[in-house]
Protein: Sulfide dehydrogenase flavoprotein chain
Organism: Candidatus Competibacter denitrificans Run_A_D11
Amino acid sequence: MNMISRRRFLTLAGASAALAVNSTILRAQSATPASVIVVGGGFAGATVAKYLRLWGGNSVTVTLVDTNLAHVSCILSNLVLNGSYKLANITFDYTALGQKYGVKFVQGRVEGIGVAGNRRSVTLANGQTLYGDRIVLAPGIDFDPIPGLDPNKIPHAWVAGPQTTLLQQQIAAMPAGGTFVMTIPPAPYRCPPGPYERACLVADYLKRNKPGSKVVVLDANPSIVAEPHTFTTAFTQTYAGLLSYRPGVSIVSVDSNARSVQTNQGLFAANVLNVIPPHRAGRIVANAGLIPPGSRWASVNPLSYESTLMPGVHVIGDSQGTGQPKSGHIANAEAKVCADAILRAFAGEQPDPAPMTNSACYSPITATTASWLTAVFAYDAGSGTMKVVPDSFGEAATPTKDNFEDMFDWARNLFADTFA
Ligand SMILES: Cc1cc2nc3c(=O)[nH]c(=O)nc-3n(C[C@H](O)[C@H](O)[C@H](O)COP(=O)(O)OP(=O)(O)OC[C@H]3O[C@@H](n4cnc5c(N)ncnc54)[C@H](O)[C@@H]3O)c2cc1C
């Protein structure tokens, strides 16, 4: 594992902003603007909507569709579980995208997409149909069903919102000496360090508020997926005697009333059970037939994020299957590559042949310290894939208070670049 300095990390974290500056080409204004429909207003969708208008000006109209009037960020949402943050702090509506960039917002659930001649269409649950020259799908993730699992009783809290509130309430009501059991799905899943971060924050909260309690982490993966040094140290030293970690655990079924999970390693009963099911691309991506057989993610060209199965339809963020990590930071970077490629396509040009993206995740380890993980990816023309840039991959040497403070600056920048 290469360690990189904080200064270098902050330089890398600014790479997507640099991309924005380099790519700020206000396109020639045409008499008939091209049109793009964006489905999903999270980190990927809100960013592509904003940057299409920022870089494309009046040459393009952009309609953003989301089920909800505002997006609740998963980033920082684990801090809601220990009561140190409120969902209101991480909820973003689409007003700024409309007022500052002219993005049209439509609230509704998209149920299908179609092709009509040169145009594409999306159909909403209320029957409304919207037409565009291109469609960008950014619906995040969907979960595999698990026998017996009722998410209204056993929250995953892996899509922030009411699920986060429910899990926070269950943890707050847990008796001293109780047991918190959580499961981690097989990789790839949303935010590689996120589940381990959650285990640490819940352990920290229980240590301070519910003496004698235990945290049991049941990981479907053979070992810790991200920041192994940081989390091994946290599990075996910071939370020694409180937290136990088991790799290679697959779920058979859940008893949502008894709050227990049956696994290949036996039955685990809990006072609070947090099951995070295996992930796949958002349902609309599967419904549209954009996932190849045997895969869980959309097949796309990483130069443009255009589907390899349906021309004119792009997939970005957690739903895409380029092998890049599923993080909000890289979703924001992918969105800019996609926006640039779409505007070039409207101008009759090829996409940038050498795009770069970067990812960063900060992980609180206690209520006052955090670590971080980062990597930069570059297009490799030989393989046609995004590959990690040598020496760009690194994790914090140790969790610190400085990292904890930097985490909020980093998040504020990402939130502003996406929603403001
Ligand atoms: C606890 C936790 C901590 C995390 N921490 C970090 C971190 O530190 N750094 C980091 O970079 N990432 C982090 N992540 C990961 C990050 O949140 C995701 O990778 C990111 O949200 C993916 O963005 P997205 O736009 O693809 O999907 P989302 O952000 O999930 O957005 C999808 C949007 O699409 C909408 N939608 C879905 N289906 C439809 C439909 N059919 N019609 C209309 N709208 C629809 C949804 O309402 C939603 O608003 C974390 C995740 C979790 C769970």
The chain has two domains: 6-142+279-419, 152-275. The two ends are 35 Å apart (CA to CA). The chain is about 30% helix and 30% strand.
